[in-house]
UniProtKB/TrEMBL annotation:
Matching PANTHER family: SLR0284 PROTEIN
Entry annotated with the keyword Phosphoprotein: no
Protein name listed in UniProt: Membrane protein
Upper classification of the organism: Bacteria, Pseudomonadati, Bacteroidota, Cytophagia, Cytophagales
4Fe-4S keyword on record: no
Species this protein is from: Emticicia aquatilis
Amino acid sequence: MRFVLEILLNAGVLLGIAYLWPKVHVKSYVFAIVVALILGILNATIGFLIRVPLNFITLGMLTFIIRMLVTAFLLKVIDSFTDDLTIDGYLPAVVIAVAMAAASSIL
C-alpha cells in the first residue's frame, strides 16, 4: 500500500513542478503516474546498483545526496526514452528529486 501511495505522491509532485516550472513538461496525469511507476522500479533496481558503490566510496556519509543525484539521473534517462516527459537540463531533474524525497519523508 505504501508503494502505491508513494507512486501517486511522486506523480503529484511531478505534475506540480511541471505546472510551476516551464522547463518541465508532462503530457498528462496518467503519464505522470506511469513515469512515477517506472522511476520507482528503476530506483529499486538500477538505482540500487548505482548507489551501493557510491555509498561505499563515501562511507555512507553522503547517502541523501547520492540518492538525489541518482534519482535525477534516472529521471533524465526516462526523459531520453519518452516524448511525453521533457526535462530541460539537469537542475530541474535535481529539483524534482529533492521535492519527491521531501514529499516522501512527510508521508
